[in-house]
Amino acid sequence: MFSVLKNLAWFFRLERKRYLIGVTLLIMVGIIELLPPRLLGNAIDEIVRGSITGASLTRYILLILGSVIIIYLTTYIWMHKLFGGANLVERLLRSRFMDHLLRMTPPFFEKNRTGDLMARATNDLRSIATTAGFGMLTLTDSTAFLATVLFAMGFLVSWKLTLAAILPLPFIAIAMMIYGKAVHQRYTLAQDAFGDMNDQVLESIAGIRVVRAYVQERLDEKRFADVTEDVYRKNLAVAKMDALFEPTIRLFVGLSYVIALAYGIYLVFHNEITLGDLVSFNMYLGMMIWPMFAIGELINLMQRGSASLDRVNETLSVEPAVKDVEQPAHITNPEEIAMQDVTFRYPSSTIDNLSHVSFSLRRGQTLGIVGRTGSGKSTLLKQLLHEYPAGSGKLSISGHPIQDIAKDDLHSWIGYVPQEQVLFSKSVRQNIQFGKPGADDGVIMEAIRTAAFDGDLGTLSDGLDTLVGEKGIALSGGQKQRVSLARAFIADPDILILDDALSAVDARTEAKIIENIRNKRSNKTTLISTHRLSAIEHADRIIVLEHGKITEEGTHQELLAMNGWYREQYERQQVESNLST
Question: Care to name a GO molecular-function term for this sequence (predicted)?
Answer without folding.
Answer: ATP hydrolysis activity
